[in-house]
Write a structure and sequence with these properties.
This protein is α+β, with helices and mostly antiparallel strands. It has helices spanning 28-37, 41-47, 81-87, 97-109, 145-151, 154-174, 213-234, 240-250, and strands at residues 11-16, 19-24, 52-55, 59-64, 71-76, 91-92, 117-126, 129-137, 142-144, 176-178, 186-191, 194-199, 205-207. A hairpin with a 2-residue loop joins β7 (117-126) and β8.
Length: 255
């Protein structure tokens, strides 16, 4: 295990062959069983009969951990941009996985909806690098904001704005800055008859002071820029009045 990787309360460490796992106590056996059947958890998930593909930078797989009833998504980490062509899927140490786990725990404790990080697995790749699989609990069936917005009626769009604004207010209350708060990083789903928004890609999260207006403005400005980009490049039917409504809702006083 790379130096500096802490194991949070409720998690433990597991070694299977050359793979090292940090996972929730209740899910360790699921990782063990998966790695007994395939060289990586991602490879095991892709071969599972019930696997559901989710397209991202690489395909992630929706499966149920073996020996459990826990529905998860298994993602194989890969660099983006220039690092992607240079390093591919090799990361120094544990990459961002420990930070993603830490931030997910912090956000959930702060009342921000985000996927529960069940655990991650590291596979030595030479010269101090590892390949990494990250396993998160699967969210309720839904879609990202642009997908839902494009097919929603006026009433549903208003409720979607309310859900996103509630998430932005929760981020403001917790002093949480997401450096890549774009429309695709918001998963929305109906739960209990109401629309709710979940924050994705939390390895880009940084923490500041609660109720910091500057952090709230950065989050909102970043999301507004993303929505306008979706409108201008991909003809998302969102106008300035809707973006203005989102700003007004997100700026409401926190109860």
């Amino acid at each position: 295990m790379p130096i500096g990787v802490e194991v949070p309360a409720g998690y433990d460490r597991l070694t299977v062959g050359r793979a090292t796992v940090i996972a929730r106590l209740a899910c360790l056996d699921g990782f063990r069983r998966a790695l007994a059947e395939a060289p990586t958890v991602h490879a095991w998930a892709g071969s599972a009969p019930e696997a559901v593909p989710f397209q991202g930078r690489l395909i992630a797989w929706g499966v149920t951990l073996p020996g459990s009833a826990v529905p998860v998504v298994v993602r194989h980490a890969h660099h983006g941009g220039a690092f992607g062509s240079l390093l591919g899927d090799r990361f120094r140490g544990a990459g961002r996985a420990p930070w993603e786990l830490r931030m997910a725990l912090h956000l959930r404790e702060a009342g921000v909806r985000t996927p529960d990080v069940v655990g991650f697995a590291l596979y030595p790749a030479g010269l101090g690098t590892n390949r990494i699989d990250v396993v998160t609990r699967r969210l309720p069936d839904g879609a990202d904001l642009p997908t839902l917005w494009g097919r929603a009626d006026a009433s549903t769009r208003e409720r979607l704005l309310m859900a996103v604004a509630a998430l932005l207010r929760d981020l403001r209350a917790g002093g949480i800055h997401h450096a890549d708060l774009n429309a695709k990083n918001l998963h929305l789903a109906l739960e209990g008859g109401r629309w709710h928004a979940w924050l994705l890609d939390v390895d880009r999260v940084r923490l500041g002071a609660p109720n910091d207006a500057r952090i709230a403005e950065r989050n909102l400005t970043r999301l507004e820029r993303s929505l306008r980009k979706w409108r201008d490049r991909w003809e998302l039917p969102i106008d300035e009045s809707a973006i203005g409504q989102l700003r007004a809702l997100a700026s409401e006083a926190i109860a």
